[in-house]
Amino acid sequence: MGKGGEHGGPDVPDEVWEQFLRTAADGTADAPKEPSARAREVAARLSARPEAPPAWRAHPTVRPRRRKGWYVAGLVASLALLVVAVDPGGFVGWSSGDDGAAARPLAQETERPEQAPPAEAGGRATLAEPFRGSPAARWADGTAGISVPAARATGWMTKEEVARALTRTRDFLAAASLDPAVLRGGHPDKAIALINPHQTDVRSYVSTALRTPGPDHDPLLLFSRFDPARARLVGDAVRTRGRLTYREGRRGALEVTADVTYVYPTAPAGGGDEVVRVIVRRATVVSWDDPAKVKTEKGTLTLLSHRAETTNGGCGDPTGYLRPVFGGGGTDTAGNDRTVDPYDRTRPMADAHDGCRHATRS
Questions:
Q1: Got the DSSP string for 83-108?
Q2: Which whole-number Å values give the CA distances from 196 to 162, 199, 298, in the listed order?
Q3: 38, 7, 6, 4: which is closest to 21 by C-alpha?
Q4: Backbone phi, psi, residue 91, to 5°
Q5: How does DSSP assign 308-342, residue by residue?
Q6: In a domain, 59, yes or no
Q7: What is the pLDDT of residue 27?
Q8: What's the CA gap between 311 and 360, in Å, rounded?
Q9: Is position 17 within any domain?
Q10: Residue 306 pLDDT class (50, 70, 90 cuts)
């Protein structure tokens, strides 16, 4: 068929036929008459043309998808993952209410607290959860709970030397109160090796206290030791909370003070599931002396003073070991109503010779 009339007439451009169809559809009075076969042919050809390509860099229209529920769920999940990355402890709180916030580990102690820790949720200590119901449930393990301040040049020491001395002081505390072998009743050789060998009075005191402990030579003022025939530690963790501070001491020495509370969960040596927490707070002052002014050995400290306050560790004459009371004996008491909160680090320490007092919690 030609492009003109039906019977081999002259060809007519497509644009003319398109105009003809639009005019006819609009109902124009003077629209030319076209045979229906030709109209059908042009209409079919126009409908078969592909759509024009989108303009360069144009954004094609996207039909909205009916997936609102999936979109909202995905958005919530993304926000949850963001919260976990920023504050994993807070995410725990979403699923466990206030208990999640309470279970968050505490930040390190950098200064003396202004109030005692609040009471913890109830529950007895167990072999699986030896710190349940105790403020120590939120404390760190071992030396991670002992805060070490930033170093600065002090006395005869440079900033780097002060940093080293602070680390060595913490090493001494760990060797004296956290070493697993010492806790099982062993000899505190590593701690003793850090004490200035020329400090003969202290060396003599320590030797006597470990060999024949007594009221005037109590090794528990410096070391934590349990009689393996009486008690065993529960798990591998000892919870701690405390801090180091320092200043310039005599003769330009670096004087470091450690105030640390240690919590030891114990159970009877012969078996059983009873757990008793022994709590020891120690205040230890050491000096890192200038070898040009004081006779000392490199890498050793001078012990200036040491004090300890113990709860549930036994009461009476020193035996050289901490003695937790099992069988429902409860906390230490001497038949009086004097009490002490072993977790209250706002108060000064009690005198070591002040007798036994009743612990308000363990």
A1: HHHH-HHHHHHHHHTHHHHHTSPPPP
A2: 17, 5, 9
A3: 38
A4: -65, -35
A5: EEEESS--SS--SSB----SS--S---SS--EE-T
A6: no
A7: 52
A8: 10
A9: yes
A10: very high
Residues 313 and 349 in one domain: yes
CB atoms within 10 A of CB 198: 14
| Helix (H) or strand (E) run with residue 76 in it | helix 68-86
- Write out the residue range of the structural domain in which residue 274 sits: 125-359
Distance separating alpha carbons of residues 328 and 88, to the nearest angstrom:
38
8 Å CB contact between 280 and 147: no
**Would 4 be classed as within a structural domain?**
yes
- Contact indicator for 360, 339 with CB cutoff of 8 Å: yes
Amino acid identity of residue 13, one-letter, is: P
Helices (H) and strands (E) in the chain, counts: 9, 9
Can you state the angle between helices 88-96 and 68-86, rounded to 10 degrees?
120
Q: What is the pTM of this model?
A: 0.71
Residue 39 lies in a domain: yes
Residue holding tokens 């070991």?
A: 321
Q: For residue 51, is pLDDT > 60?
A: no
- Give the residue-averaged pLDDT of 221-236: 96
